[in-house]
Specification:
Order of helices and strands: EEHEHHHHHHHHHEEEEEEHHEHHEEH
Number of helices: 15
Strand order of the largest sheet: 1-8-9-7-3
Distance between the termini: 39 Å
Helix content: 40-55%
Number of strands: 12
Largest sheet: 5 strands, mixed
Low-confidence stretches: 254-259, 338-342
Mean pLDDT: 84
Strand content: 5-15%
Length: 342
């Protein structure tokens, strides 16, 4: 997946839609945990002031160590970054993303490393990773987990609530005025919908014809650019993505859900099961749920079964993993701590 930011400049990116493209345009729930982790590292390296991330950067800066270095050393000194979205997918849980990395074809690894400008001292490590060695992959996978624990996981309650709010706003826009209103409402005035063309600032003039693939609008929490256009040059059938920022305010200005709501939820479901419902709000596998709850896989599966049988979560299989996602009823319960709709 190649990425180009469209934060400014006189030339424009022009995305041409057909009726089929409009029918296939959708809003994703998330851009995926792997991309969010990598974007968080890029944000830490930014020199310019980013008000939404000022407190977050103060909390995270200086805490990187040996466990995160296998990934942080792969952030290029200039030019485009490593595309973890292409290597690890847009899945919402880190376990599933790591599994995708460990099984990615060597040809894909080599392709994603082509043309990246790493620090000379990091080139030997970058070569070992792109050649697909098992030990190098596991080191990188462990570093992804370490970075996730440091830069993303502690702040994800706030990020997740913003993603849910953006999804709700987009759904309402589609209900009120269809895809036309949705496209007119994306990051104005930076992005302009002039049917059948969506325009955004770009480093050079480029015309993209979706050719029936549609467009995925992907919200991001750790976004350093107002808008980015992403596509996979190795998969022409896959729809491109237009990433948009989900945060409407500073990442650390508000905490997780209201404390009284969480206490009420614990009284209603039990502390561990209430925590399980919180974890499924971002999507997770059973093993991820067990790790976050610090219980066995069997106990996590039992909690998930109870939540599923009460229509608070859904469970589906994706590849070799079982994924759990919260339902609208579960979200309402999580926000209010009661079974009354908000």
């Amino acid at each position: 997946m190649r990425s180009v930011s469209v934060a400014g400049g006189r030339p424009v990116l022009r995305i041409h839609f057909t009726a089929q493209d409009l029918a296939r345009t959708r809003v994703a729930a998330t851009i995926g945990v792997a991309a969010e982790v990598y974007y968080s590292l890029e944000l830490l390296g930014e020199n310019r002031e980013l008000p939404h991330f000022r407190a977050w950067r103060s909390a995270v800066a200086g805490r990187m160590g040996a466990d995160t270095r296998p990934l942080t050393s792969l952030v290029p000194v200039r030019g485009p970054g490593l595309d973890l979205l292409a290597l690890m997918g847009d899945v919402p849980c880190v376990d599933h993303a790591v599994d995708n990395l460990l099984h990615a074809p060597v040809s894909r690894l080599r392709r994603e490393f082509e043309g990246l400008h790493f620090h000379p001292g990091h080139l030997p490590w970058a070569r070992r990773v792109c050649e697909g060695g098992r030990d190098a992959r596991r080191e990188l996978a462990n570093a992804v987990r370490a970075c996730h624990r440091l830069t993303v996981e502690p702040y994800w309650d706030r990020g997740r609530s913003e993603l849910v709010a953006l999804s709700a706003r987009c759904a309402n826009l589609v209900l009120e005025g269809g895809i036309d209103l949705l496209l007119r409402s994306i990051c104005p005035p930076l992005v302009r919908w002039r049917p059948p063309v969506l325009e955004a600032p770009y480093p050079r003039r480029v015309d993209v014809r979706l050719q029936g693939r549609g467009l995925i609008i992907a919200p991001t929490v750790f976004a350093k650019h107002p808008v980015s256009f992403l596509w996979d040059p190795l998969d022409s059938a896959q729809p491109p993505r237009l990433s948009v920022p989900a945060l409407r305010g500073p990442l650390l200005d508000t905490g997780p859900a209201d404390g009284s709501a969480i206490r009420n939820l614990g009284s209603l479901l039990g502390r561990t099961r209430a925590a399980a419902l919180q974890v499924t709000a971002e999507g997770c596998t059973t093993s991820e749920l067990a790790r976050r709850l610090r219980v066995t896989a069997a106990a996590a599966s039992q909690h998930a079964t109870v939540l599923r049988n009460t229509d608070l979560i859904t469970t589906s299989r994706r590849g070799g993993s079982v994924l759990h996602h919260i339902t609208p009823l579960g979200l309402a319960l999580l926000r209010t701590g009661t079974l009354t709709e908000p």
